[in-house]
Amino acid sequence: MHSSPTEIQNQPDRQPSKASRLVACLSAVVLVASAIAQPVTGPIAEKIQRATIGEAIVGVAALDLETGRPIALIGEATAMVPASNQKLLTTGAALLTLGPSFVYQTAVKVEGDRVRIVGAGDPSLGDAELLEQTQPDLSTEGLLAALAKAVLDADTGPISEVVVDDRVFDRQHLHPSWDPDDVNKSWSAEVSGLAFNANVLAVFVEPGAGGAGSAPRYHVEPAVPWIEMQNRGRTVTKSRHTAWISRSLANNRFTILGNIRYAAQVPIRVPFHDAPTFIAELFADRLARAGVRTAEGGTPQSRAAEPNERFQAGRTVAVVNTPLADVLRQCNVDSQNLYAESLLKLIGHRVTGEPGSWTNGGAVVRMLISDTIGAEHAATTAVADGSGLSDQNRVSPLTVARWLRALHEQETLRTPMVESLPTVGEGTLTRRFRSTPIEHEVRAKSGTIDGVRCLSGYLLDGTGGGIAFSILVNDLKRGEQSVNALRLHEAIVAELDTFLSQTRRAREPQVGG
Predict the structure, then answer these.
(1) Do 380 and 235 belong together in one domain?
(2) Given 300, 326, 352, which residue is the final one in a domain?
(3) Do the beta carbons of residue 291 and residue 152 sit within 8 Å?
(4) H or E, element range at 331
(5) Going by C-beta distance under 8 Å and a sequence separation of 6 or more, which residues neighbour residue 3?
(6) pLDDT band at 17 (very low <50, low <70, confident <90, very high)
(7) With 90 as the cut, is the pLDDT of residue 33 above it?
(8) Same domain for 296 and 333?
């Protein structure tokens, strides 16, 4: 948001009246009081004024963590698109609803000649990226094998079918406001009450053995030989590496496309369709490989549970436990959209007792905002999804900053919330603040969709104090403006950092005299 500097013109031929002099004095008092109340507003406003961001809208709110005193407020009440800063609302609401000690429990049950996998809304089950960080000796395939072995060791006898019970969530797997062209993108994976490997396939491609022009080689993790994978890629030796994978919207037909020049160490991650059915088929296959088969010696049938289907109690043969803290950190540090959407739907389920949905989850978030920081903040907040992928979310910088401060005030929530956020040099902040030295600890969430660049979080002084801040920039029109918006984020945080340093030094006792 740009505002023109106040213009002061001298008019020596006119003498101000007593009334106008009184107004001028009162205005001066208001300006001085505002400057004292918000000591960094002026310098930040100047930085916004100088930033080359076209007609973009900028909102800033920065609050003292200990007192709640405003340090900087510019366009703070404007409801804006937050992009992935929406995850701050979602993860905070999850902590408030579930509690920091919450543990997901995904159960494998045997019920007669049926195996039922009961989803708990855990988005991290079998996620290769999370397993590498938390259990490096366990892979996606290793987890599948361990669960299949648990069924085998239970000496169940023949198994006729595998049922995935994902009914903790509804079956609206894609949000209606998401771009349908993103169906091939890992950040748009379908959301389901039972997820596996973040509901994506990891496809590793490499040049074909026949050299230039030959079909590339590939393998898929987890292995799913029954799916249709057309190979239309082309091995090249000089052209740019452009490998990608397409998947049709309504089924699991995949196509490898583009030029393959080298074997990338990072796989192409592509979402699969109809996660409950897909995961049931995957698990039935692994049971058969482990030796758990039908009475006729075949692979068990597989399906998703019917909406109103009832099952017998059965016997639990395996449980996969995941601490909420692991999910929160993956959600915020790596900005994992599936994790955020699953959190939103889970809190909707926990509060209403109904299958979790974007509707009831969003209602819970707004209810918690109202209860925690005031109904006026909930009234101006729109919660379309949990991740910020939707451009229909709206929240003001002041709401975000007050929300962050309120979470920090609660002793049991402070550490898990702060530790869920990346610091400089990790996750989505890996490349941030490289040329902007910051004295204090930054813990913040970035946010990026078309025309939107945001950064909100904490600046911590190491003694329990610091600043909660939110910087939202909307309506960016060109790529260079987006880059300049990122620089503006860092310049504003640097200004807050300087203020925090000066405040801390002013409080330190002086030695000598």
Answers:
(1) no
(2) 326
(3) yes
(4) helix 324-333
(5) 45, 49
(6) very low
(7) no
(8) no
Buried b (16+ CB within 10 A) or exposed e, 461-500: beeebbbbbbbbbbbbeeeebbebbbebbbbbbbbbbebb
Q: Binning pLDDT at 50, 70 and 90, where does residue 125 land?
A: very high
Domain range for 361? 37-98+327-503
pLDDT tens for residues 159-181?
999 999 999 999 999 999 999 88
> CA 513, CA 510: separation in Å to the nearest integer?
8
Domain count, the chain: 2
Residue with tokens 């909406």: 307
Structure tokens at 430: 């890996």
Phi, psi at residue 371, to the nearest 5°?
-70, -30
Q: Are 406 and 382 within one domain? A: yes
Mean pLDDT (whole number) for 450-472: 97
Closest CA to 162 of 307, 304, 290, 275: 304
Q: Identity (one letter) of the amino acid at 122?
A: D
Rounded Cα–Cα distance for residues 342 and 210 (Å):
44
Helices 275-290 and 140-153: angle between axes, nearest 10 degrees: 60
Q: What share of the chain is helix, strand, coil (3-state, %, to 5)?
A: 40, 20, 40
The answer to whether residues 294 and 371 belong to one domain is no
Is 278 found in the same domain as 306?
yes
| 331 within 8 A of 340, measured Cβ to Cβ | yes
CB atoms within 10 A of CB 220: 18
Is pLDDT above 60 for 13?
Answer: no
291 and 388, same domain (yes or no): no
> Looking at the structure, do residues 332 and 472 belong to the same domain, yes or no?
yes
> Who's near 285: CB < 8 A, 6+ residues apart?
224, 226, 299
What are the residues whose beta carbons fall under 8 Å from the beta carbon of 52, sequence distance 6 or more? 480, 481, 484
User: Is 511 a residue whose pLDDT tops 60?
Assistant: no
Do the Cβ atoms of 377 and 369 come closer than 8 Å?
yes
Report if residue 12 sits inside a domain.
Answer: no
Phi-psi sector, 239: left (phi>0), alpha (psi -120 to 50), beta: beta
Which residue, of 326, 341, 363, is where some domain finishes?
A: 326
Concatenated DSSP letters for 355-412? PB-HHHHHHHHHHHHHHHH-HHHHHT-B-S-SSS-STT-BB-HHHHHHHHHHHHHSHH
Q: Is 295 a domain residue?
A: yes
